[in-house]
Design goal:
2 copies of one chain form a homodimer.
Chain A lengths: L1 H30 L6 H19 L4 H7 L15 H19 L2 H24 L2 H22 L5 H9 L5 H23 L15 H14 L7 E5 L5 E5 L2 E6 L6 H20 L15 H15 L3 H15 L8 H8 L13 H19 L8 H13 L25 H21 L3 H6 L3 H10 L9 H9 L6 H15 L2
Parallel strand pairs in A: 1-3
Antiparallel strand pairs in A: 2-3
Helix pairs in contact in A: 1-2, 1-3, 2-5, 5-6, 6-7, 8-14, 8-20, 9-10, 9-12, 10-11, 11-16, 14-15, 14-16, 16-20
Chain lengths: 504, 504
C-alpha cells in the first residue's frame, strides 16, 4: 500500500505541476501577453489540459486505488491507513472520478474554445457589444450541459455543476438558503432605504493610479502576504492564481475615479492568496493541499475584504496611512466620514463593486439566470434583456449597457457555470467562521485597530487553511463552528453593522 | 507518404507548443516570478522538457521516417517529395537524431539543475562571489561532457556541442577562422590605439530609466517590430524569446549611467525578434520554421545593432528624436560627437557592452576557455584566474571582480557550452550579407537616414528569414552571397568605418 500511495501521489504531483503551468499561461494571458499571442496560447492551454487529463485518467490509477481499498462505496480506502491519508484518498477519488467521466477530446476542445471565448468576452465588454460574445457563450452553455451529462447528477444537470465547486450542493438546497438570505437582505435594504443616504463623493475624486497602487502594496504585507511568494499586477478583472506552492499571484483593478475599488479588490485577492499560502505544506502538489471548496475560498477573501477591511477599527488604524498615500486627494476627509462612505449601501450595476448588503443579491441573480439557461427556460440571445429585468426585480435598477450588465463577469466566458453561488455562500461561511474566531480570541477590535493581524491569520491557518481539502465544506463548518452552514450569522452581522452606519 | 508527413508534422507542432510553454516559464522566471517561486519553476521546466523529449523520441517516429525514405544516408527522404518537404525532413532528422541520443532521465535531470544553476549564477553575480556558482558550473560542464558523449562527435567532444548550434562546425575550423579574425582585429586595434581617444563622457551622464525606455519603445516599431506580437521588459541580461509564432518578446537592460547600453541592447534584441517574426509562416510550429543557426540569428541582431544602429546615417535621422526623448540630458551634444562617442573603441570588461572591434575578442576568449574546460586543461575552480589572464592577453586589461569577469554571461549557467562562437561568426555573416544587400539595393545610407527600413527588412525577409531552417548555414551564405563564410567583409567594414571615426 505504501508503494501504491507513493505512485498515486507522484501522479497527483505531476498534475499539480500542469495546473501551475496552466495558471502561468492564464496569468500571462490576462496581464502581459501581446494580443496576437492568443492563437498559440489557446493551443498551449489545450495541450496542457489534455496532458493533465490524460495523466489523471491513466490506466494505472484504478489498480492503485483498488490496492488502497478505495471504491465508490469506500472512497477513504483501507481502514488501517492513517486519518490524513484516508482524507487524502477521499479528495483524490472525488477529483479522479469526475475526471475519468470527461473524455480527453472534450477537455481539449473546450480548453481551446475557452481561450477564444475569453478574448471575445473582453472585446465585447470593451465595445459594449453582446453579439460579439453571444456565439461563444452559446458554446460555453453547450459545454456545460455536455459536462453535466458526462459527470452525471441527481435531479438536474445543474446539480452536477454545483457539486464541482461545492461538494454535494444541489439546486434545491441553494434555492432554500438563498430564499432566506434574499428575504433578510431585502428587509435590511428597506430599513437602509428609509434612512438618509450616505455621501461618498470623496471616494469618487480623481486619484492617480500610482497612489492607489502604493496603498495596495502597503496592504498586502500588512495582512501577512509574503511578497517573496507573490505579486500584484493590474488586469481587467481581479483574480488570484496559484503558479507554485510559493508563487501565488494576485491582480487588481485601478479606477481613477474610484480608489475604493482597488482597495477592496486588493484586500479581497489577498484573502485568497493567504489561504493558498497557508495550505498544508506537507501535502503541497496534491489534491489534499488544495482549498476545501470555492465557497470556503470565497469566505477567506470576503472575511478580509469586508469583515476586516470595511470595519471601523481597521480604518482607525489605517486611515492616516491611506490619507498620506493618496495625498492630497482626501486631506479634508475624516475617519467617520470615510468609514460611512466606504460602507455606503446602494443598488448598483457591478457585482465586484457592490456593497456588502446588495452583493449577495447580484449572486442570486446570476444563480437564477444560470439555472434558467441550463434548464432551457432562457435562450442565450435573450440573456441581456433577462438580466436587465431581474436587476430591476431584485435591485430596482436596470443597467444602461451590457458592459455594465451581463458582460461584466469573466466566469461564463471561461465556461464556469455553477461557480457563482459560492460567492454568496462565502459570505455566510465568513460570518459563521468569524463567530467561532471571536469565541476563541475575544473581540477582534483591538487587533484590527493596531494592525496586529497575526492572531487572526494564525487562527485561520490553524482552523481552515492547514486543513486543506481534508474535510468536505459541510464537515469543516461543523468542525470549526459546531453547526451547519446558516444564513443567520451573516444577516446578524449585517444588521448590527448597518444599524451603526445608517443609524437605525 | 502524405499521411506519414502529416503525422510527423503533428508531433513537431506539439513539440513547438512545448517549446513555447518552456519559453514562457523561462521568460517569467527572468522578469516577474517572485523569488520563492523558483522550486516549483524548476520542476515545471523539467516536466515540460521531459515531455517534449518523450514525444520527440516516441516509438512511432522511426517508422514514419522510414516510410518517407529518410535515413542517415538520405536525410532528405524520398526524391519524389517536393523541395521544401525534403528540406524540412533534413532539418527534422537533424533535430530528431540528436534528441534520440539523449536519454529522458538525463534531459529531465539537467533541466532541473539548470533552473537552480541560473538562480545561483544571478546570486553569485549580484554578490560578486564565484564560489556560489562554482559547484553549479562544475555540474554544467559535467552535463556538457555527458551530452557530447551521448551525441557523438568527430575528433573532440567539444565538436559535438559546436555542431548543436552551427551544423558541421568543428573546433579546428573555428580556431582557423578565429585566428585570422584575431589577427585583423589586433591590427585594427593597434591603429586605433595610435590615435587620440574619443570622448564619450556625454554617454555616461545620469539618464532616468523612463527616458531610456521611451526611446527604446520608439525604436522597436521604427525598425518594423510589430508590438501587437511582442513586448519589451527589463531583465538582468537582455534576451529574445519565442512564446508563440506571434508572441516574440524581448528584454533589455537599463543602466542609469549608460543610456547607450539600453539602445544597443534593444536594437540587438529587436534584430532577433524581427528574424523570429519573419520565419516562414507556412512552416510555423515546425523545425523548418526555425532559424537557420545560432550564428545566423546573431547576424540579424548584430546587423541591426551595429551596421544599422551605430551608423552615421541612422543617427542623422534619429538623433533629434533621441535628444528629445532624453531631454535635457544631451541637449548640448552634436550629432558628430554623439556618433563618435557611440562608436568609441576601448578594451573593456563586459562583452555585451563591448564595441564592434573588441567584441569578437571577448568571444574568442570564451571559445578558448570553453575548449580548455571541455578538454580538461582548465579546472572550474581556476576559471576566474584563467579568465583574468586571458583578458590581459587579448585585451590588455584585467577585470577587478568576477562579476565583471567570468560571471557576466548567463550562458554557462544554462549549460549552453558551444554557444559563444556564434556571436563572433554572427558578425562575419552580418557583414557578408550586407555586401549582398548593397549589391541589390544600392548604398543603404538614404534608407537609414530617412528611417525607411522597409526595403532592408524586406530584403532580409526574402533572403534569410523566410528560408527558415531550409538551408544549412554554409548553404545559406553561398546562396545569398555566392561565396563561403569569410572574415574579410567584416574586417573590411570595420577598417573602413573606424578609419572615419578615428581619422587614419
Amino acid at each position: 500500500m505504501k508503494d501504491a500511495l507513493q505512485r498515486l501521489k507522484a501522479i497527483d504531483s505531476e498534475c499539480h505541476l500542469f495546473a501551475g503551468i496552466n495558471a502561468l499561461l492564464g496569468w500571462d494571458q490576462e496581464t502581459y501577453m501581446p494580443p496576437k499571442g492568443l492563437d498559440a496560447r489557446g493551443e498551449q492551454l489545450a495541450l496542457i489540459e489534455g496532458l493533465s487529463h490524460e495523466r489523471l485518467t491513466g490506466p494505472d490509477i484504478p489498480a492503485l486505488l483498488a490496492s488502497l481499498g478505495v471504491s465508490e462505496q469506500n472512497p477513504m480506502g483501507d481502514p488501517s491507513l492513517d486519518k490524513d491519508t484516508r482524507s487524502y484518498l477521499r479528495a483524490f477519488y472525488r477529483m479522479w472520478s469526475r475526471e475519468v467521466k470527461l473524455p480527453g477530446d472534450f477537455v481539449r476542445e473546450r480548453a481551446k474554445a475557452v481561450s477564444l471565448s475569453q478574448a471575445a468576452w473582453a472585446d465585447a465588454r470593451a465595445k459594449n457589444d453582446f453579439s460579439l460574445f453571444e456565439p461563444h457563450l452559446e458554446k460555453m452553455i453547450g459545454y456545460a450541459k455536455r459536462e453535466a451529462a458526462y459527470l452525471g447528477y441527481g435531479e438536474r444537470p445543474y446539480d452536477g455543476l454545483l457539486d464541482l465547486y461545492e461538494a454535494g450542493l444541489t439546486v434545491q438546497e441553494t434555492r432554500q438558503i438563498f430564499s432566506k438570505l434574499k428575504a433578510g437582505l431585502v428587509s435590511l435594504l428597506a430599513k437602509i432605504g428609509s434612512r438618509p443616504q450616505v455621501d461618498d463623493c470623496a471616494l469618487k475624486r480623481s486619484c492617480p493610479i500610482e497612489k492607489q497602487e502604493a496603498f495596495s502594496r502597503h496592504l498586502m504585507p500588512l495582512l501577512g502576504y509574503d511578497l517573496e511568494s507573490g505579486r500584484l499586477d493590474p488586469s481587467a478583472h481581479p483574480f488570484t492564481t496559484s503558479i507554485g506552492e510559493d508563487d501565488i499571484r494576485i491582480t487588481t483593478r485601478y479606477l481613477e475615479n474610484d480608489f475604493g475599488s482597488s482597495i477592496s479588490s486588493t484586500i479581497h485577492e489577498t484573502g485568497h492568496a493567504l489561504y493558498e499560502l497557508g495550505l498544508p505544506r506537507a501535502w503541497a502538489r496534491t489534491v489534499m493541499g488544495e482549498a476545501c471548496s470555492t465557497a470556503v475560498h470565497e469566505s477567506q477573501s470576503r472575511f478580509w475584504e469586508n469583515i476586516v477591511g470595511r470595519s471601523l477599527p481597521f480604518w482607525k488604524g489605517q486611515f492616516p496611512r491611506l490619507k498620506a498615500d493618496l495625498s492630497p486627494v482626501i486631506e479634508d476627509v475624516d475617519l467617520e466620514g470615510f468609514y460611512r462612505a466606504f460602507n455606503k449601501v446602494e443598488p448598483s450595476y457591478i457585482r465586484v463593486d457592490a456593497d456588502e448588503v446588495t452583493y449577495s443579491l447580484h449572486v442570486i441573480l446570476r444563480f437564477e439566470l444560470e439555472s434558467d439557461l441550463m434548464e432551457g427556460r432562457l435562450k442565450v440571445a435573450d440573456l441581456p434583456s433577462a438580466w436587465n429585468l431581474k436587476m430591476k426585480e431584485l435591485l430596482g435598477i436596470s443597467p444602461p449597457s451590457d458592459a455594465l450588465g451581463c458582460l461584466q463577469d469573466i466566469h461564463w466566458s471561461m465556461g464556469a457555470v455553477g461557480y457563482f453561488p459560492g460567492y454568496a455562500l462565502g459570505n455566510l461561511y465568513a460570518a459563521q467562521f468569524t463567530q467561532a474566531m471571536v469565541a476563541e480570541l475575544g473581540p477582534l477590535e483591538s487587533y484590527l485597530e493596531t494592525g496586529n493581524f497575526t492572531p487572526i491569520l494564525s487562527w485561520l491557518r490553524r482552523n481552515i487553511h492547514e486543513r486543506g481539502a481534508g474535510l468536505l465544506p459541510s464537515e469543516l463548518v461543523k468542525e470549526v463552528c459546531g453547526s451547519a452552514l446558516s444564513h443567520e450569522p451573516f444577516l446578524d452581522y449585517l444588521n448590527k453593522k448597518y444599524a451603526g452606519v445608517y443609524g437605525f
